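dumping this here so i dont lose it again. seq + smiles for magnesium ion
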Amino acid sequence: MPRPPTKRARRSETPRPPPSVEILDIAFRRGSLVTPHGRSKAERDRLRAELKVVRSSATVLRHLRLESRRVAERLRGSFDAELVDRTFGRGTAGRSLARLRHAEERIRGAAREAERAAQTAPDHPALGEVVRAFYGRLASFVREIDPDLLRLRKIDRFLDVRPRLLPAAPVVVIAGFPNVGKSSLVARMSSARPKVADYPFTTLSIAVGHADLGFDRLQVVDTPGVLGRSRRANPAETEASTAVERAANAVVFVLDPTETCGYPLAEQEQLLSRWKEEYPSLPIVAVETKADLLARPTDRLRVSAVTGEGIETLREQLRAVLPPTPEPAAPVPDGPVGDEEPPTAPEDERTPSRPRRRSR
Ligand SMILES: Nc1nc2c(ncn2[C@@H]2O[C@H](COP(=O)(O)OP(=O)(O)OP(=O)(O)O)[C@@H](O)[C@H]2O)c(=O)[nH]1
Ligand SMILES: [Mg+2]
């Protein structure tokens, strides 16, 4: 006998009503719960009509603010704003937020008109007509922005699972070919514990760890391996390049001279040269990793995520190229990766000297 569908399956089969249905339902319910006090019946009728307008519009306005507030806050951070632009289309989130604001203004205007109409309505039926007409306008204003509410909810869910970068602490992005040892280095340098494995494309999205640089709380961003071939960027690469262009104060470019990663050193060097050309104002510290496996003479800093060789020198080199944090840094949390408060500081309070990609 076929099993009855589970609760979760039943829930996913039932399509959720559009946001406007939920919001209006609550608003009309709150409107119907008014109990006016007045000396005469006529006075109570008028007051009831006015309260219905006031309560229902205030409920809708509160819900619209709740729907937009979190996204609007996160979009103040340049990294999140750019990531959302690249993922959902440039300006999409901003346009939806603007349409919500416009709807709010129209609702306020309609509520003011309805309140005035209720004050001069001659009798009970006329008051009923005022409330009916207002409810109709309110419903159409909210229904019109259903696509925007759905889009903002989607963006909110997307941002919820993205690592957050604090605007005030410097950011170092760890980059290089796949499988060279980026995540191992991030784990050695910071609080992040990314997955490390002996095959390429282990890391599929950026992750943020924290390190104490002595004077500073440093955000260390692990990225998926970049091959440097010109092709359409996948979501992981979009995230990584957004982190470099919008958040990085420096890059640690990891080269694997042992070539156990599976990519020739010459190819890795070519990518490094391209990065230097593309980000001329960004300090790029090139390191050769897996120093425990190969002792080859080099002018670059040799590091090993296994023995810790070169890690302290790398920290010193980063200290030298990073701008100091303007305010005393908060203590480094022990929590999971990317669990910080959303960035809320305005653009001009952010750590200075973000690089800009050279226009091609
Ligand atoms: N001996 C040695 N092995 C290392 C070192 N660093 C990384 N490895 C090994 O190299 C392999 C790849 O390491 P990851 O840190 O996952 O490399 P990744 O660059 O993050 O790889 P992707 O996320 O796939 O791009 C793993 O098997 C690591 O154990 C090192 O310093 N010494
Ligand atoms: Mg990795």
